[in-house]
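Listing S7. Sequence submitted for prediction.
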Amino acid sequence: MIVKIFEPVAVFEAVRYNTDKMDKGKGELLKVANFGPLMGFCNRRPEDYRAYLQMVSALNKNVRKPVFHATISAGGKTHSKEQLLAIAEKWMKAMGYGEQPYLVVFHKDTKNNHVHLVSTRVDKQGKKINSGFEHVRAIRELNKIMGLQEEHQSNKDIAKALTYQFTTKAQFVLILEQLGYKIAEKGNDLEIIKHGKVQGKVSLASLEKMISGFQPDKNRALQLKAIFSNYLQYYKAEDLAVFLKSKMSVSIIFHASAGKPPYGYSVIDHAQQRVLKGSEILPLKELLDSTPTKQPEKIAGDMPEQDLKPEPNAINDAPFSEKQDEQLDQPISFRLHMT
């Protein structure tokens, strides 16, 4: 579940954008809340909503950009419009907009079900709704509604990363960065940061100890080289990365400076829980210069069935395995930052 708050603007074009979606059959108005006298009218027009929101906003001339526009998006079709509406109502209340006039519009024209929410940042007494740290609060409040505990999730994510084999600190950092974390080295620890908050710490000493115990797997490197070479018959490098991640839980991460071609790449093999330098598998030039010669629909007939399936303990976007879950009960070398 993803929440996004758009930058505030002065004019309520977000109402028009959403009602246009409805007119094209790509959207559905799920809720009209707290629009005062308008609630008594049956045939309300988009301009009626805009005028009312503009009228309330005018109560505080200091708020020059009063439009509040946000989206809450599900992963694929995992949540129905009714479920998204219930989540949106709770989230608006948690963000301080529960008593505000607002619209909830369901969009069904993308692969992910999502709702748009439009309101004003000025209340009916002329006071500005609190916007302090709203992007951080937006995520935190949604997590609470969805029953997610940030510390517990970070606990699991760090534990997953520590089960991998890696040869450098940078490779360990890469695993967590792919899960949306930012990493900062402070003193003798790596701080694991998400949603603007330190979620946990990993001891540099224990990390070095893990690196010293790395066990190379040349056979797996050769296997991946064969897989890469085979699928490059069907895909360019960037498309190969998408295919391998979705089908085999193998992530290719290209390294490049802003606006410049990649100078290297890494591979996170979630199936075997190890990180490799790209050069251990295939030279970067060979990967980038490869030209597909076959159609993708013929892939299944070219590769053995077992090579098409990720290992059952792959963790890329997969549920935590029982084995990994059990590891959470064991002493591990990181500390959670509790506030």
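Caption to Listing S7: primary sequence and predicted structure tokens for the chain studied. Residues 151-339 form one domain. Confidence is low (pLDDT under 50) at residues 300-339.
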